[in-house]
Design brief:
Helix content: 25-40%
Shape: globular
Radius of gyration: 21 Å
Number of strands: 17
Oligomer: single chain
Distance between the termini: 58 Å
CATH class of the largest domain: Alpha Beta
Strand content: 15-25%
CATH topology of the largest domain: Rossmann fold
CATH architecture of the largest domain: 3-Layer(aba) Sandwich
Strand order of the largest sheet: 1-14-13-17-15-16
Length: 447
């Protein structure tokens, strides 16, 4: 453990909320199949997929039901076998309605092309172009929450040079443990996935960034790697939001992504560990992204758990499997407490980007009274992007998109550190999100 004594972190800002990793030692358990799944065709950043099935069609698990419609788009697959039901607008975890395909479950008949065995396949026979094609075909997206189509990240723009693949195993959000469990239970598959991504990108090295509160994962990967230099582990200080792409790049490589830029601008591509495991399954097993690990947790949840869940499963099924909805539940969040969003309906489906379901007790869910800004500057100190959150709040509230853009509001990663430290309980992030939406709307083409 030569890295333990020299933990890295990003240079400015950040906070350390209580970790509350209640389910860290709970192995991943498959959730029983639901009676019906609701699969949104918008589960990724970019253009919605184009539906290719009709009501009444019979489908198999892993079958394409909506194809990518453009470069920044992603395939959607049936996560179960059964009969396609109604295709309609349905509310998802964002609180908005999107077109979704309902499938009534009948058995569990898989597409014959998928290798369902547990055999580890270490030999990578695909060439880079075929790797990207298989990832595109499998509908792989970023599973850390952003849901950016993974094949796009592997298509390096002309003029850019990438030398490092950075694997994000930080999982800095309080409560969430899905990535931690995947690292402990599927490390060999992840390492093959890393080698696949390295081959696709043509890079000579990869680094796995893991926060130091996951000693077991750090030790496991170092043992498996056995001192090889092409792939290494970087142990990182526990500091939120260490898992942000720009913060992780700065902590591990001491490179700074420019304002409005992308990791590729500084020679780096970042993939989450769960995404890397999905890449392994897509390339070596031809398995599409039809299920994922989801943490179900909360202080009063009877059995905090990590479930392997089919995409489209209603949230209520996960809560019931974890002991039911606690009587004092005040808010249920998709994601973690810092960046997650409250859901209004327990029938909303699990999506590719759903990392956790968190139950907040009534007492903690109540919004406390907000007071005037006391000019303490704590939000500025906490901002990992070096912004002035108190001022961005004012611009968002006043509806000043031009000024907000000039103050780099779009650089905000919405980590919530500013709201977390504010002694006046001001809804800083709420207004910054509003301001960002107004900036994007002002820049959108006029129809």
């Amino acid at each position: 453990m030569g890295l333990r004594h020299k933990l890295s972190t990003f240079r400015i800002g950040g906070v350390h909320p209580p970790e509350q990793k209640l389910s860290a030692m709970v192995p991943i358990a498959p959730l029983p199949l639901p009676r019906m799944v609701t699969i949104p065709i918008v589960q990724h950043i970019g253009k919605p997929a184009r539906i290719t099935v009709q009501r009444g069609d019979s489908v198999k698990t892993g079958q394409v039901i909506a194809t990518h419609d453009g470069f920044v788009s992603s395939n959607i697959h049936a996560s179960v076998s059964g009969k396609v039901g109604i295709i309609e607008e349905t509310m998802d975890s964002t609180g908005f309605k999107h077109i979704a395909v309902n499938i009534r479950v009948k058995g569990d008949e898989w597409d014959e092309s998928i290798d369902r065995s547990d055999t580890l396949i270490t030999e990578i026979t695909c060439e880079p172009k075929e790797i990207v094609e298989r990832i595109l075909a499998a509908g792989i997206v970023g599973m850390g929450g952003a849901a950016f189509p993974s094949h796009v990240k592997l298509t390096i723009p002309e003029g850019k040079h990438v030398d490092t693949l950075l694997i994000n195993g930080v999982e800095c959000e309080p409560y969430l443990t899905a990535d931690h469990r995947i690292m402990l239970e599927k490390p060999n598959e992840i390492l093959v996935g890393i080698r696949i991504l390295m081959k696709a990108l043509g890079v000579p090295r990869a680094i796995i960034g893991i926060e130091d509160n996951k000693h077991d994962a750090i030790e496991l990967f170092e043992k498996l790697l056995g001192g090889q230099t092409a792939i290494s582990v970087a142990a990182l200080k526990v500091q939120y939001p260490q898992g942000g792409e720009k913060q992780l790049i700065q902590a591990v490589l001491n490179r700074e992504v420019p304002s409005g830029g992308l990791p590729a601008d500084v020679g780096v591509i970042v993939h989450n560990v769960a995404t890397t495991f999905a890449v392994y399954e897509a390339v070596q097993k031809r398995k599409p992204l039809i299920e994922r690990v989801v943490t179900v947790t909360g202080k009063d949840v009877k059995t905090p758990s990590n479930f392997l869940v089919r995409i489209g499963t209603p949230v209520i099924d996960l809560l019931n499997a974890a002991g039911g909805v606690p009587e004092d539940a005040g808010k249920i969040i998709s994601g973690g407490p810092m960046m997650g969003k409250a859901i209004a309906d327990l029938e909303v489906p699990i999506a590719k980007g759903t990392s956790g379901i968190l139950v907040i007790p009534e007492e903690e869910a109540k919004r406390t009274e907000s007071y005037n800004c006391v000019r303490c500057g704590k939000c500025i100190e906490a901002c990992p992007m070096g912004l002035e959150p108190y001022y961005l709040l004012l611009l968002g509230r006043k509806g000043s998109p031009e000024k907000a853009e000039a103050e780099h509001i779009l650089d905000c990663i919405e980590c919530g550190s500013c709201s977390f430290v504010c002694p006046s309980n001001r809804p800083i992030l709420d207004y910054i999100r509003l301001g960002k939406a107004e900036v994007r709307q002002s820049k959108a083409p006029k129809v």
